[in-house]
Amino acid sequence: MAEHFPLKLVGSRMLAPSVRHLEFARDDGQALDFIAGQFIQVHFNSPDGSPTKRSYSLATQHDHAFGVNDTVEIAVSFVPGGAASALFTALDEGQQIQCSGPYGRFCLNEKDQNARYLLIGTGTGVTPYRAMLPQLKHMMEARGVEVVLLFGARTEEDLIYREDFYAFAAENPKFRFMPCFSRELPATATADARRGYVQQQLAELVPNGAHDIAYLCGNPNMVDASFEALKEFGLSVHHIRREKYVSSK
User: Fold this and answer.
1) How far apart are the C-alpha atoms of 45 and 84, rounded to whole Å?
2) What whole-number distance in Å separates Cα of residue 201 and Cα of residue 187?
3) How do residues 81-104 score in pLDDT, each as one tens digit?
4) Where are the beta strands (DSSP E) in the chain?
């Protein structure tokens, strides 16, 4: 059930030139119990004094088998002139923000019996997939499901959380990480790296409505294009789960 709570900034780092990873602790002595794929809302006043809010997917990785996690992690894209960007730019360690949540149903379903997950994302749209890694590991070990993560970005430095995905792929043979670069392949590109947009790589994966479930998160145009392409490959609407990210000022 969603609740309101204060968060205190305890750490941060840059993930990309315009994306910052923020780590918080609840400042009320409680922990945030959530399901990977959910998001929180940050509440604040805009420059004109009116109350507003912004939604951020949780990047936190935790294993429910060991209880809830007392940290709350998000990735924030900075938008020039954005009210939320101004809030987070001025936020220093030890300072507090007000939040509510968790919300959302963009989550893995333990009742799924598919043979493969296709996780497709752009920009900060891959944040929920980072949170899902522990759950995906259990699914791969328990029922042998395969997972492909297609991550679209302009350049390698825009691949947020890439170290996590590369490391997870190296440790889990059933997980394939396919970064897709819209500009050019980096000199250190892996064998699974591709040139172009993520939706252009779907044909290579030969999506199959009989055994695939797809998740789409990020740029609305990508989500719409991938949704239509996956339907043409035979995936039912029920097996295509979507969440669009729209930049707000």
Assistant:
1) 9
2) 20
3) 888 998 999 999 999 999 999 999
4) 3-16, 19-26, 39-45, 51-57, 71-77, 96-103, 116-122, 146-153, 175-181, 194-195, 212-218, 240-244
Contacts of 125 (CB under 8 A, 6+ apart): 57, 217, 218, 219, 243, 245
Q: Summarize the confidence of residues 129-138 as an average pLDDT.
A: 97
Cα–Cα distances in angstroms (integers) from residue 15 to residues 18, 56, 77, 140, 156, in the given order: 8, 15, 10, 28, 11
Q: Which residues does residue 176 pair with via DSSP β-bridges, in sequence order?
A: 148
The order of strands in the sheet holding 116-122 is 194-195, 175-181, 146-153, 116-122, 212-218, 240-244
CA 138 to mean position of chain CA atoms: 18
The tokens of 205 are what?
């994966």
- Beta strands at 3-16 and 96-103: parallel, antiparallel or unpaired: antiparallel
Task: Give the predicted TM-score (pTM) of the model.
Answer: 0.94
Please, which pLDDT band fits residue 30 given cuts at 50, 70 and 90?
A: confident
